[in-house]
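Service request form, structural biology core

Requester: graduate student, group of Dr. S.
Request type: structure prediction, single chain
Budget code: on file
Notes: please return the result as structure tokens.

Sequence provided:
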Amino acid sequence: MISTKRKPMTVSLPITIWKALQISFWLIGVLLVLLLLFKPDLGILLFWNLLIPIAPALLVLLPGVWRNICPLSSTALFPRKLKFSKAWQLTTNQQAWLYLLGVIALLLIVPLRHLLLNTSGLATAVMLLVAVSLAVTMGMLVKWRSGWCATACPIHSVERMYGSTPLFTTDNAHCHQCEQCISLCPDSTKQMTSSLTRSHKLERLAATLMTGGFFGFIWGWNHVPDYRNDINLSTVISAYAWPLLSGMITLLVYLVLTSSANKKQTQFINRLFATLAISCYYWYRIPSLFGVGLFPNDGVLIDLSASLPSWFPLVIKFASAYFFFWFMLIRPNRLKKQSWSIRPNYAIDVKNINA
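Core staff response, request fulfilled:
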């Protein structure tokens, strides 16, 4: 019998092209920090209202490409490439703690956007420079990508959540050979999700928080305005209470749904909650980019409120939601066992490793 199962789609590029892309995006990252410091209005527009709105869709469609060109990832690897990294091997417990801390950092930083980051170029630049410092420090201490890109980076948990059904698998432009720097490599593990973890309770906790709570977190976050120069106890409580309490509600729903579900049902629920999360993000974010969001003055890329027809917000909301439901849940190849990138040959010969 001839198998009709489709093989995972792979796209390979010459390493010179990947290096050119890495350098280009690294320079763009440097330019963004400079703009945030010296031309803050332009820097905020390009970073928060152009780059960041594109990023979630990129993580859904091409997580391997993003992992290859992320400027912070390239920066984190400088110590190893310049041969002054201690290259310590993280224990499973340390990996779990770093992953949990990355999730906590994400949940603390995102509400801070409404209080400070969305309106202050200096604050955003400082946040990025702190992230660079942490990434480089981890690169100086631990082995390859295990200390930042695969654990502590706050965006990594979002990559895991959204990147379960990549459009294609690509080269790994950072790792020329697999050094087994982390026991569950997100780049090479097939169908990587936030809920796919080792049997460590802290890592399972982080995964459950993201998978079940992120949908509500995003919904609540989008119902908070930017508090321009009006930071007090009340606004701080509002900025954090809306996303965190909403996240707790969807987390409880998730726990109830999965409490009696079998493995296949749980996998579907996980994909469903990831789809709901990104659909919710674009449901509110796309209209706001054009000045027709819940808070017309917040998060605007180009104000078209005076020229767009009244039906535009609703149509674009449903169109974006339909796309992500189709791409992540409905399309026929959604169950392909794809990884974000191709695992390179092992640095040493290892047997019985689940790729």
